[in-house]
Design brief:
Elements lengths: L15 E4 L2 E4 L9 E3 L5 E3 H9 L9 H5 L2 E7 L2 E6 L17 H4 L6 H4 L1 H8 L3 H11 L2
Antiparallel strand pairs: 1-2, 3-4, 5-6
Bound molecules: iron/sulfur cluster.
The site of iron/sulfur cluster has 8 residues, from loops.
Amino acid sequence: MKAREPRLARLHGRHFYRAEGELGLARPDGRCVFSELDGQGRIRCHLHAYAKQTQIDRGLLQPVSCRLFPLIVIDRGGGRVLLTVVASHTRRLVSAFPPSRYPCLADPSLPPLHEAMRADLDWLFGDGFAQALTSAAISRR
Ligand code: SF4
């Protein structure tokens, strides 16, 4: 990643720290090293933006939980899976900040998650899952 991402070369800066001879990733204000604040103080993922900008598959850069954020997938055992989303009452499950800090949850101009995350949902649950979810959402209106 360092060869492709100049930000990672900034040793002793915002992204890395050195302590007792070890190099570690910094966590600005307790946030992920790859997070950034936009002009409104909202949290954005630099890896997400970088993948989009360079047209690299996000799955090659982000951990699965990050690729699915703000969705939360809980394995309840016995083949049962609970799919939910980061909200005020679930955010602690994934150590997330309040929903208002994330554009994907707080910007009303963005499409609903089942549309915006169509490719990710199909990747995780199989082709057609996102469409089935959209249909279910429409029938509940
Ligand atoms: S989505 Fe993952 S990699 Fe991106 S800022 Fe959040 S925790 Fe970091």
